[in-house]
Amino acid sequence: MAPDDEPKIIVDEDWKARVQREKEEAARKAAQSQEHGTESEEEEEQSLFSSLVDRLALEGAMALGLIAPKDTKEVMIDLSLAQWIIDVLMDLREKTRNNLEPEEQGKLTATLADLQRVFVLRSQQVHEAMLKNADLKPKNP
Question: Alpha helices of 37-101 — where are they, by DSSP H?
Answer without folding.
Answer: 41-63, 79-95
